[in-house]
Amino acid sequence: MNMNIIKEFSSWIRTSPSLVMNDHRIAPSFPISSSDLTTSDHSDYEGNPRLGFLYQELCRRQFEASHPYRVVAEELQLQQDNRTIGAIDFVLENLTTQQIEHWEVAIKFYLLKDGYWYGPNAKDRLDKKLHRMLEHQLMMTRTAAFQSLYPDFEDITQHLLMQGRLYINPFENPTIPEYCLGLKINPKRVTGFWCYQSQFDKINEPVYLLTKPLWATGLTAKGKSPVTELPPHFIHCQSDTGHFWFVVPNDWPQSSM
Predict the structure, then answer these.
(1) N- or C-end of the chain: fewer Cβ atoms within 10 A?
(2) pLDDT tens, 23-78?
(3) A single Pfam family, by name (predicted)?
(4) Rounded alpha-carbon distances, angstroms, from residue 27 to 21, 42, 165, 177
(5) What is the H or E stretch that residue 104 is in?
């Protein structure tokens, strides 16, 4: 993977605000700034190609390279009665406050349809994801399985970082919800567009296909030909003027549930 992609994605993580607000467990942004980094690791990534794995790896690199934090554990699998009950993204020590912190991190992209925010794979939905992260994932450090591993971490705090982008269909004049599960939607993250394949011709400028490592940051140069033929599945693109677009099948979201 290009070193510049790693560098730009890492910078995007440090500077992009959360998708939702108004819960003390939800971090408004990544807790590390450029000035907190003692080194920069922009080396190649050869792990799982899924975007979430790359995102978590770049979070890990920055936690490890910062002076405020020490990584105690990452991707910690919890076992109970000989079965895995869950995994914890990060256990960190805040060296400034001496506080032990549990962090879950997620990068998500959601499209507004009929009042709900769906992932391009519509089995994923913002309200469902938030509920699971807040009521299940962040509770992992309160289980007997975790406490048996770290009995001294009784006062561990819980933190959720959920970054990404929210998309609306400009051809349908949607009403944008202000809240999801009682949490305020961050209007600064409603910055993308989506449309059905039948509406693709209404986009009045060329769009260019994005590979998953570029879903967050977008393209720095338009080195390929614009999209002219649509595949049967959804695609994620960026326009000449920088707008992000998802183009989905005409029967979405039903087709991907």
Answers:
(1) C
(2) 999 999 999 999 999 988 888 898 888 999 999 999 999 999 999 999 999 999 99
(3) DUF1853
(4) 8, 24, 16, 21
(5) strand 99-113
Q: How many CB atoms lie under 10 A from the CB of residue 80? A: 13
209 strand-pairing partners: 237
Over the range 3-12, which residues count as b (16 or more CB within 10 Å of their CB) and which as e? eebbebbbeb
Q: Which residue has the tokens 């490890």?
A: 64
DSSP 26: B
CB 220 within 8 A of CB 2: no
Tokens at 160, concatenated: 């959720």
How far apart (Å, rounded) are the C-alpha atoms in residues 235 and 252? 12
The strand pairing partners of 90, in sequence order, are 74, 103
CA–CA separation, 253 and 129 (whole Å) = 17
User: What is the average per-residue pLDDT within 177-198?
Assistant: 97
Non-local (6+) Cβ contacts of 47 within 8 A are: 53, 54, 57
Q: Three-state DSSP class for 129? A: helix
